[in-house]
Structures are given as C-alpha cells and as structure tokens.
C-alpha cells in the first residue's frame, strides 16, 4: 500500500505506509474502549456516590485518557519513525540515513559559538545525515537549556531558561578555516553573544539583519562573498530573527529556531498530514545545500 503526499512544491512522493493505517485504527479502537470504561465508571460513581464521587472520577478519567493517548501515540510514532521517515530522507538526498535516537554532539553545538552560554541540559534527537552532490551534511533537533538559581526572601528557586530549541545543521564547506566567523541576529547584546571582533561588509541589508563577527577579518570577507551574502539574506527573510550561522573548522553550521516536534505520528492525525509536515522539514533543511551553493567548490581544503 502506498500513501502519496504532495509537497509544497507540488512534488508527489510515493510512500509505503506498511502497517501504519492498521496500527492507527487499532490504537484508536483501544482508546475508545478506555473512554467507554472511564465514562461508565464516572457515571456509576456519580449515581452511587453522588456528585463528589462523580467529579472525582471525572478528573481521574480525563487524566487516565490523557496518559493512554500519550502511550498509544508514542507506540505509533515508533513505527512512523522506523518505517516512514527513512523513506522521506532517502528521497531528498544520497546515502540518506535517519536515526531517531542520535543527534548533534553537544561539543559541536558549543564550538559553533552561536550562543552565549554552555547548556546545563542538552538533548538532541532525530539525526538525519546524507550527501547532496559533493556535500556531506547532518542535522538534528536540539534543545539546550540553562539552569538559573534565584535567591529570594522565601528561599532559593531554580528555573530552566531556553538557550535554543530547533534544528542544528552541519555541512562540509570544503575549506579549513583558520579562524571562526559567526552571524547572529543583530539585536542588543548580540556582540556579547558572538564574542569576537565585528566585521563590516558591503551589504547594508545583511549588516542590519546580522551582527557579523570573526577572529579573522580577512578570512571573514573571503568567506562571505557577495553571492553568499545574497543567499543568506534570502534565508533570513524566510526565517526572520531565528537564523544563526557559524563557519567553524571546515564546516558551516546553521541553527534555526523551531518549537515544534517533528517526525511524530498522531493518534487522530491522518498519516498524509504527518508526511506533508515532515516533507516540508526535510526539504527545507536538505535544501540549504543548494540554497547556499555549497556544491560550488571555489576552495580546496589545505
């Protein structure tokens, strides 16, 4: 059985749905059985024990059904991640691989120098890696948090503050950089985030949008050609105030904010909707290779 999904570019992709429709139908039936049991128990409790028992059982039923929904959706997502998502990845790149439990190493995230502090809590998942043309790449979902302690007259309170949540993309740039160049949103305090000397470039629009900093001024201008700056601006207009770029080692790293989880199946969401959502995510991220013209090798590695 195949599920045909249409991407935003009107491209059709044939996806073998396997046992997904049957599993989804089975889990929905299980949920309905639980719902019937909870409704019956609540009604019986209200009749026998009165309104207090009725309201108590109603609250317990709602909580129980929420737990059941989460567990069933998680089981369905495991199948979706194992059988459906790899097909999407292989469609958009060569040698494409998907690992739901792997991600971007924390040290790579830190070395990008795109964020002000080291994370106290770091999680990453849904690694996709492959090759488009000559360019090898990988990207994953990342969530980085900072622990903050606040002392008040009532005691000490610990809170977790988001450093970054979204996609982190790493690709080979075919150039061994002597220094590090970063582009971060140009808002108050951003220079402290970048922690380097500011670079002035001949693109006023880019200079208004980004704070460009580097440890090597000459190399930064060498990397950021007029053509590349134009391509970066096209991306920035699509993702305003949530795009950061780092040229580190021999790689280009792109961090793009996104608060939504991807590659998850819903108990009540049609499979076609899940596929359309994830086609968009994979297309946008693998498309960075072409959008930033990474396959045009104007340099060679030293």
Give a quick summary of the entry.
This protein is of the alpha+beta class and 302 residues long.
Order of strands in the sheet with the most strands?
A: 3-4-5-6-11-10-7-9-8
Number of helices: 9
How much is the radius of gyration in Å? Answer: 24 Å
Helix content: 40-55%
Query: How much strand content do the residues show?
Result: 25-35%
Form type: globular
What is the total tally of β strands?
Answer: 11
Q: Kindly, what is the distance between the CA atoms of the first and last residues, rounded to a whole number of angstroms? A: 50 Å
Order of helices and strands: EEHHEHEEEEHEHEHHEEHH
Main structural class: alpha+beta
Low-confidence stretches: none
Name the average pLDDT.
Answer: 85
Query: For the report, how would you describe the main beta sheet?
Result: 9 strands, antiparallel
How would the blueprint of this fold be written?
Layout: E1 2-6, E2 12-16, H1 20-49, H2 51-92, E3 94-99, H3 106-111, E4 121-132, E5 135-152, E6 155-172, E7 181-185, H4 190-194, E8 197-198, H5 204-209, E9 210-214, H6 217-223, H7 226-238, E10 243-248, E11 251-257, H8 271-286, H9 288-291
Antiparallel strand pairs: 1-2, 3-4, 4-5, 5-6, 6-11, 7-9, 7-10, 8-9, 10-11
Helix pairs in contact: 1-2, 2-8
């Amino acid at each position: 059985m195949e599920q045909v999904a249409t991407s935003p570019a009107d491209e059709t992709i044939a996806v073998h749905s396997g046992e997904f429709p049957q599993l989804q139908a089975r889990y929905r039936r299980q949920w309905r059985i639980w719902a019937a049991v909870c409704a019956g128990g609540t009604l019986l409790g209200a009749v026998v024990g009165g309104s207090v028992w009725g309201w108590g059982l109603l609250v317990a039923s709602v909580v129980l059904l929420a737990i059941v929904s989460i567990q069933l959706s998680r089981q369905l997502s495991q199948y979706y991640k194992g059988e459906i998502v790899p097909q999407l990845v292989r469609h958009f790149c060569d040698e494409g691989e998907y690992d739901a439990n792997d991600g971007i190493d924390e040290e790579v995230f830190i070395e990008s120098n795109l964020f002000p502090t080291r994370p106290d809590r770091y999680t990453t998942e849904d690694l996709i890696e492959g090759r488009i043309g000559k360019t090898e790449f990988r990207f994953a979902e990342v969530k980085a948090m900072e622990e903050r302690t606040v002392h008040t007259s009532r005691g000490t309170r610990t809170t977790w503050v988001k450093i970054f949540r979204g996609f982190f993309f790493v690709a080979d740039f075919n150039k061994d950089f002597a220094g590090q160049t970063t582009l971060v949103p140009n808002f108050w305090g951003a220079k402290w985030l970048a922690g380097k000397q500011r670079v002035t470039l001949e693109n006023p629009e880019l200079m208004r949008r980004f704070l460009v900093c580097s440890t090597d001024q000459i190399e930064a201008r060498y990397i950021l050609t007029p053509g590349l700056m134009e391509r970066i601006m096209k991306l920035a207009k699509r993702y305003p105030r949530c795009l950061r770029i780092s040229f580190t080692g021999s790689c280009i790293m792109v961090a793009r904010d996104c608060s939504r989880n991807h590659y998850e199946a819903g108990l009540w969401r049609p499979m076609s909707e899940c596929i359309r959502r994830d086609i968009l995510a994979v297309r946008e991220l693998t498309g960075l290779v072409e959008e930033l013209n990474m396959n045009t090798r104007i340099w060679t590695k030293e």
